Description:
Elements: E1 10-13, E2 26-32, H1 38-56, H2 66-86, E3 91-98, E4 107-115, H3 140-146, E5 149-155, E6 158-167, H4 182-186, H5 191-195, H6 203-224, H7 230-241, E7 248-253, E8 271-277, H8 283-292, E9 306-308, E10 321-330, E11 333-343, H9 350-387, E12 398-405, E13 415-423, E14 426-434, H10 438-457, H11 462-493, E15 506-516, E16 519-527, E17 533-535, E18 541-543, E19 547-548, E20 562-566, E21 571-575, H12 577-580, E22 583-584, E23 587-588, H13 594-600, H14 607-620, E24 630-637
Parallel strand pairs: 16-19
Antiparallel strand pairs: 1-2, 2-3, 3-4, 4-6, 5-6, 7-8, 7-11, 9-10, 10-11, 12-24, 13-14, 14-15, 15-16, 16-20, 17-18, 17-21, 21-24, 22-23
Helix pairs in contact: 1-2, 2-3, 2-6, 6-9, 7-9, 9-10, 10-11
Amino acid sequence: MGFFPVQGEAEFRAPAKDPGGPGPPAVARTSLPGNPQAPADARQFVRVALADWSGLGVPVAAGLTARVSDDAVLLVSELVTNAVVHAGTDVELLCRLDEAGPGEDTDALVIEVSDHHPSRAVRGEPKPLPSGTPEYGRGLQLVATLSESWGITYRTGTKTVWARLPVEGVRAGHEPDPYASEQTLQRGLCAAEILAPLPKRVTHDMEWVNRGALSFLAEASDLLAGQFDEDLVAALAGQLLVPRLADWCAVWLDDASEGPSRTVPGAPGARLARVWHTSEHRMEELRRVLEKDPPLLPEALGSGACPVPWPGDTSAGGTSGTALAYRLTAGGRTLGTLLIGRVGLVRFPDEVTGLIEDFSRRVALAVSTARRYQRQANISQILQRGLLPSKVAQIPGVQSALVYEPRDKGGPGGDFYDVFQAGDGRWCFALGDVQGKGPEAAVVIGLARPWLRLLAREGYQVAEVLDRLNQLLLDDATEAADAAAAVVAVAGGRGVPSDGATSRFLSLLYGELIPYEGGVRCTIACAGHPLPLLLSPEGEVRAAASPQMLLGVVDDETYTSESFDLRTGDTLLCVTDGVTERRAGRLQFDDGEGLARAFADCAGLDAGLVAERIRRLVHEFSERPPDDDMALLVLQAE
Length: 638
């Protein structure tokens, strides 16, 4: 069956088919966390449950029209939003199909939404309230309008709002909407049935138009929100409109260049990003027509609908209809154009053109958001490349392997590495972790790595490099990191706690290698960093340095270094705390010397295989994705 749970445990039960009796009701229930995603998950849950009941042939489900489905989705959205906003607890959602009982005229779809904060006042009517009375339950007016009956039940620790929607089935003689295709009905998208023009429209149908519009726009907002690819936004726009409100649509997008934009289809810089049609085999034909002869729009056109000629030649008896164009505008910039068409219509109904105008604003906002995100991602990637070496030096007589995985793939992390030649037969390596994230950490890394190279090439010994780097961090990095934090706050980061002075704190593993005949002399110092481990060819593991104070904390700290020889087959492993502190519940990867045991099992492997095995074990330690940057460096004497 197609049912699947959304966020949290879910239960789905369909009645056994019993020709002799009504049997138990069909029930679907789930638990949702009290966060902003809950209403979207609730809508998805209801759609899937109703579709599955229909697919399973549940008797009552035969009466689940698209109109009932729309009402159910809208009602659940309101109730769950109410529970999240006004209670803030986890929300239990139950949907049940009930056959008509004694004294009841119709079967019913029952919806129950429960939260765990019953002490707050709930009201359903807009009556004047005494001063100081809390105002909650504004969505209950809509519940009362949509449902046959509704109510609130209080139990210890739980408040439940329930509503009963009548399931009337398909009446004899009902004429289906000629524009609501079978594909539309199968997908359970009632906007086409509700909003398509009918030969005769009565007053109560206009109420259903408004209900369908709310449901359609809510779903569109859910799908478009959080999309960071403008081409995907264009594709989603097509799938939302076709076949619900149009038989075909096309989306043009500009080239995202800076400055004023008056993009029109066919103008330089405008590209036809997406074409969608109810008939897949006609998409390419429509694309060719639109690319060859794009519609011309007046420059003064605002965000409203603009009639345009039907694309293609219809003089030979081909299909024709009505086409409308909408500017996609956000933040005072025109980002593109949306074009829709409907076969066989003289004009789109006003309620449909207004709905698509609202929809086009959401599309434009999603495109604008995607472009801002992409610009920021590009800046972050450029910054990341500037913070890290373009390549690591090859050390004579030493195999090296590196793994670097920032937690945020689109932005700078707090970890950094370097392997470089310091001259006079000396090579240096470093693995560091700034105690902060984002721009503040990037500023410190941008200062620390060049300082390391400069001090090493000036001939300072390992311990002396750490002494001077510690003082430089105290003197210069604090001011630079504070300036970066101030920029973040001005750009909209107010309310986000800053790392403050801790962003200058740096844990660092720094060492020097001097190859000689038969081995490599290694001198190393560890400042507040996970200790490096040395593995012998026989599988023995020991710490290769002693712990010392973080850099950037105490201004008169004196650092020391340790020296040893790397013989053939000896392997040195250096990691950041993204490896040692990888979590699985309350456990960490390095609990009980977990890293040392994993490293001992790597005896006999070359540097590349050691790095890959440790990386794989760290990822497999927990089912959750890593919540910190991870870097590890393996150096092995040949």
